[in-house]
Specification:
The protein contains 20 helices and 18 strands. Helix 6 packs across helix 7, helix 12 packs across helix 18 and helix 15 crosses helix 19. 38% of the residues lie in helices and 20% in strands. It is globular and about 65 Å long. The strands form three sheets. Strands 3-4-5-2-1-6-7-11-12 form a nine-stranded mixed β-sheet, with helices on both faces. A hairpin with a 2-residue loop joins strand 4 and strand 5. With 485 residues, it is of the alpha/beta class. The protein folds into two domains: 262 residues, Glycogen Phosphorylase B (Rossmann fold, 3-Layer(aba) Sandwich); 191 residues, Glycogen Phosphorylase B (Rossmann fold). The structure holds adenosine-5'-diphosphate (ADP) and alpha-D-glucopyranose. The site of adenosine-5'-diphosphate (ADP) has 18 residues, from helix 1, strand 13, strand 14 and helix 14. The site of alpha-D-glucopyranose has 14 residues, from helix 1. It catalyses: [(1->4)-alpha-D-glucosyl](n) + ADP-alpha-D-glucose = [(1->4)-alpha-D-glucosyl](n+1) + ADP + H(+).
Length: 485
Amino acid sequence: MSSLRALAIASEMAPLVKTGGLADVVGALPHALAAENIELRTLIPGYPEVLGVLHAGETVLEFDDLFGGPAWIHAARHNGAAIYALIAPHLYARESGLYTGPDGADYPDNAFRFAALAWAGAQIGLGALDGFTPDVVHAHDWQAALAPAYMHYAERPRPATIVSIHNIAFQGQFPKELLQPLRLPPHAFDIDGVEYYGAIGFLKAGLQLADRITTVSPSYAREIETPEFGMGLEGLLRARADRVSGILNGVDEETWNPATDAHLGTRYDHWSLPSRARNKAALQKRLRLRVDPDAFLLGVVSRLSWQKGLDLLLDVLPQLMRGRAQLALLGAGDKTLEEGFVAAEAAHVGRVGVHIGYSEELAHMIQAGVDAFLVPSRFEPCGLTQLYALRYGAVPIVSRVGGLKDTIVDANEMALQADVATGLQFSPTTADALAIALREAERLFEDAETWRKIQVNGMRTDVSWRNPARRYARLFRDVAATRVG
Ligand code: ADP
Ligand code: GLC
């Protein structure tokens, strides 16, 4: 198998910089694809947290003026991956969020911050670097999605292009007056180009002009062709349906492995499942819950946003607290939800333990300590936390949407009889359906042997990158064969 060169462009990459699952996926793909003989290098913004880590390396490309200031590309290696950091102090040297300022609002120059990323990626695609011209450019989400457009309008020989949708709710829409400042030609403002409902759509442009489109599960690939989930892009996606594929995310098996996890007091695998109880006790202590081995401990690790459906959990909490349940929740985001969970903790001392904030360590402790892990999303392109839960023997309870639907085998009667169940699914995503699923889960939990079988089935499920990497590799090779010029 001949080797192929690819450039990924993304706004996050774990472990350097992460706000969600996008970072996990971008961080894992270089290793996953190396096994398929694909050399994937990754271009990310040179945020302060990135530059703080990537000291060694060299400048490989300079721009005198990249949307208002000088910029350069710093090449370095981190965790075995080749990284290009786009250093542009006027765009990225900020101490607040990746996308938002101290007031929580989007930075007013986000159009330029991410157009710059896409522009720099497009220059690499067009051959600006000595010694590395990619066969494929892979742009992730709206922040990178102008790259195929820049290469398209350059009208020069170019690599094949792929845009991956991790979340269609974020599209990058900006006023049409920015067309020229964004270095897009007048004819780009067209329904077949970057124009989107009278404005400029970054994601729209990428979906229109890339050779191929992927998203992160087969079910989400179908869902986004409907008005309910497509968020305005369903028509375009239907028109290009033969170019769209859904490839499930995998799990980084080194980071998420209960047998070797350095964050855990007690490490275990499916042969030593009983020792998992010690992690349950440790978690209960850590989150001020009553230490009770028989409590039905539910866990959540999530961004707190409408997407994730956690308002429904608040709705059913009073009911849940009538039984033997406890809740361990780690999350941050929407202020109303944060306050709701803090209030729930105060109302149910010893039964609800909440940590508002971001903590890798606690995220691992929750996966290793809870009996069941809850993901009641209204939509979920793939979802990673239910996959981590499978690995850790925390039984996932999920809404039947997107990647949740594709990765969990519901414990219905047939699946239980065949001993293939790995979790519980519910639908529609409402408080009533969630309450029914939670009652059913608690009933199954009472039957220790059945519950253990569901845990072991989950722990034995292949959630690695092996199969997804093979599918990406096939896609990269197919599309590279059609490259222009
Ligand atoms: P999304 O990308 O939509 O947020 P995913 O399930 O794909 O959802 O990925 C979420 C990732 O972010 C997981 O790695 C999860 O463990 C992590 N995560 C979310 N919230 C927190 C938090 N408060 N602290 C630590 N990790 C978190
Ligand atoms: C997005 C989605 C999530 C997915 C992640 C990585 O953040 O919300 O479902 O797992 O991207 O692809």
